[in-house]
């Protein structure tokens, strides 16, 4: 199949990648994957050099340790770039930090949840999410998470799912976990995650388990995360492939 489409992959951490599941889908559909590694300019984060939007078919914005509220020059330039893409109806697929950057670019806010999630969590799909041609591909509403902040729902966006975070004061906070804006989607979870990448996270991001608070034992949570996701990964990867294919179809990219 001739390569005629370019997918820009914006990465904020060396440990967080598109992973094999989503990489295989995009390559099978004729996409050239162009990485933009924002993390390479750490710790100053002063460099963001993206291609002209006219040359990009699709933008996938991945997660990382930064906050959408950070004032780094690279993040400010990225926010402007994402905002331009959304205004031009260029399809954007935002994951975790990527979804938060989308929300901020659309005028919403991002704030700490008071807790931290690293593991499988149930999401509560809205009526709009159940009817959505893309999000409805998630038939088992259990998703891997890695975050300590969440977004408010942008104006003119459609909420697709919600969830709960256990805060460090042992109270629960209700958060938005997915939204659609025109032909773009933001996810406060990790649809691209594979078991192979989770093993990398458990090695390189082990300190994130400490952020869950004193009510959690980091070693126990790390072991549980691998144990549970080992069983769930085949189901997760299958339904997330279906969702990505539906997203590409809705965007007119198949």
Question: What features would you describe in this structure?
Answer:
This protein has 254 residues and is of the alpha/beta class. The protein has a single domain, classed as Rossmann fold. It has an eight-stranded mixed sheet with strand order 2-1-3-4-10-9-8-6, with helices on both faces. The chain has a two-stranded antiparallel sheet with strand order 5-7. It is globular.
CATH class identity: Alpha Beta
Enter the CATH topology name.
Answer: Rossmann fold
Strand content: 25-35%
In the CATH hierarchy, the architecture is 3-Layer(aba) Sandwich
Radius of gyration: 17 Å
Identify the overall geometry: globular
Structural class: alpha/beta
Residue-averaged pLDDT, rounded?
96
SSE diagram, text form:
Blueprint: E1 5-11, H1 19-28, E2 31-37, E3 58-61, H2 73-87, E4 92-95, H3 97-105, E5 110-122, E6 124-125, H4 127-131, E7 142-151, E8 158-166, E9 172-181, E10 184-187, H5 195-204, H6 218-250
Parallel strand pairs: 1-2, 1-3, 3-4, 4-10
Antiparallel strand pairs: 5-7, 6-8, 8-9, 9-10
Describe the structure using short key phrases.
single chain, 254 residues, alpha/beta, Rossmann fold, two-stranded antiparallel sheet, 10 strands, globular
């Amino acid at each position: 199949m001739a390569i005629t489409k370019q997918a820009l992959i914006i990465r904020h951490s060396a440990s967080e990648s598109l992973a094999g599941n989503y990489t295989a889908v995009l390559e099978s559909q004729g996409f050239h994957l162009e990485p933009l590694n924002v993390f390479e300019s750490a710790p100053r984060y002063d460099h963001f050099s993206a291609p002209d939007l006219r040359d990009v078919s699709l933008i996938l914005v991945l997660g990382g340790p930064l906050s959408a509220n950070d004032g780094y020059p690279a993040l400010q330039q990225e926010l402007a770039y994402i905002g331009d893409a959304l205004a031009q109806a260029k399809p954007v697929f935002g994951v975790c930090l990527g979804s938060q950057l989308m929300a901020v670019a659309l005028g919403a806010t991002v704030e700490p949840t008071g807790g931290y999630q690293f593991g499988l969590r149930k999401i509560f799909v809205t009526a709009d999410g159940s009817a959505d041609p893309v999000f409805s591909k998630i038939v088992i509403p259990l998703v891997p998470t890695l975050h300590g902040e969440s977004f408010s729902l942008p104006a003119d966006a459609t909420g697709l799912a919600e969830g709960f975070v256990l805060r460090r004061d042992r109270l629960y906070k209700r958060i938005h976990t997915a939204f659609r804006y025109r032909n773009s989607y933001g996810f406060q979870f990790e649809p691209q995650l594979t078991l192979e990448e989770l093993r990398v996270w458990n090695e390189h991001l082990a300190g994130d388990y400490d952020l869950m608070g004193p009510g959690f034992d980091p070693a126990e949570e790390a072991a549980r995360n691998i144990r549970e996701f080992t069983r769930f990964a085949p189901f997760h990867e299958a339904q997330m492939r279906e969702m990505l294919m539906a997203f590409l179809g809705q965007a007119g990219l198949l």
